[in-house]
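Q: I'm building a small set of examples for a reading group on sequence design. Run inverse folding on the following structure and report the sequence directly after it, with nothing in between.
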């Protein structure tokens, strides 16, 4: 992290109330866990990194991957997902 990134991050959080800060951390943690699961599914099925998360989950679920089915059942495709 550069000092510029640190300053920008600090400006964003310095006036946050504790409950809002904790909620933001929880959301980031959940998103990180989702990205990790999708990456693991992608690797298990030999899909390329450029493959969109939607396609990864759909193909894996179609082949019976329980993790992909579980993620789809949570409505993950209805939530905004920043997939690179």
């Amino acid at each position: 992290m550069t000092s510029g990134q640190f300053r920008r991050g600090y400006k964003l959080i310095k006036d946050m109330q504790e409950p809002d800060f904790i909620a933001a951390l929880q959301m980031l943690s959940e998103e990180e866990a989702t990205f990790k699961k999708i990456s693991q599914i992608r690797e298990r099925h030999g899909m390329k990194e450029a493959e969109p998360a939607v396609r990864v989950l759909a193909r894996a679920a179609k082949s019976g991957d329980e993790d992909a089915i579980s993620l789809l059942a949570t409505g993950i495709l209805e939530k905004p997902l920043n997939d690179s």
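The first helix runs from residue 3 to 13.
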